[in-house]
Amino acid sequence: MRSLPLLLLFTVLLLCACQQEPAYQLPENAAQFLAGDTLKSWKLAWRYNGGVRVSMGPCYYGYRQTFKTDGTFHDNNGEQSADCGESMHGKWYLRHDRENKPYLSLQSSLIPQAFGIDKDIKDFQIVELNDQKLVLRFRHALFTNKTTLIEDTLVPEDVEVADREFHW
Known about the structure:
By secondary structure, this protein is of the alpha+beta class. It has a single domain (26-156), classed as Beta Barrel (Lipocalin), CATH 2.40.128. It has four helices and nine strands, in the order ααββαββββαβββ. The chain has helices spanning 3-18, 30-35, 58-62, 111-115, and strands at 39-49, 52-53, 64-68, 72-75, 89-96, 102-107, 121-130, 133-140, 148-156. The chain has an eight-stranded antiparallel β-barrel. A hairpin with a 3-residue loop joins β3 (64-68) and β4.
């Protein structure tokens, strides 16, 4: 009889440990938040790499990613004065995985080169999306074979961001 309370406690602890955080629910108008009425440009407000805030340089400050309602996107890498790489053009769509987590999927012929992967599609988990903020999380092998978790917060290009020019 003394083992019954211990068994109950163990069961409760096990159930609590196994519960996953519920998947973020995309708003019904997620596509409009992302692409506006015809197009919308986003800039990187800040980036975390493995939970650590990243100091950003000229390519990050000038970076803009534009999503259009026709399902296409482009960035401005090739248009910047610094050597920031080629501009990426492609298609975007929203999807959910088997656990109902929402993703922004980008498809472009430049994806393999930019992310060091074999596919031309890269999925970014949507952590938050509204008309003023887009938070994306993704795994990326930056300069080694070791992957790290990146979390980017983007805002519409006309929004002022306090402490954007953060440096260590």
